[in-house]
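Need tokens for this chain, all 127 residues.
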Amino acid sequence: MPATTKPSASRWTAVPVALTALLLAAGCYRVAVESRAPEPSPTRSGSTTVWIYAWGLATTPKVTADCGPTHVYKATVRTNVGGFLLGLITLGIVVPAHVEYTCAAEAGVIEGEPPLPPPPPPPVPPS
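Here are the structure tokens for all 127 residues:
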């Protein structure tokens, strides 16, 4: 009879480690939406954490951006490994997400340093 070899212990530990790493890597995500509007405003932005309950069916998270007369230039939603693990433990019933937004600059205004003034006209010779 041919001799059979037993699988090594390292093979049995490598599979759960690989699966755990795959789950943790899949748990982090980032989604960004950017408009083609005027320049973003570097001074007007904000962020908040929202809680998603029952896969978003219980209530839809609402984020109000304080952009004044303009609109949102860019919005980013992200979660991390901790949020993923909480969602995994609760089977997706509770998942936190972090929302960041940047407002657009007002129409005709690009925030930052003001442009240089035009050069003065050349002097007119006396007649």
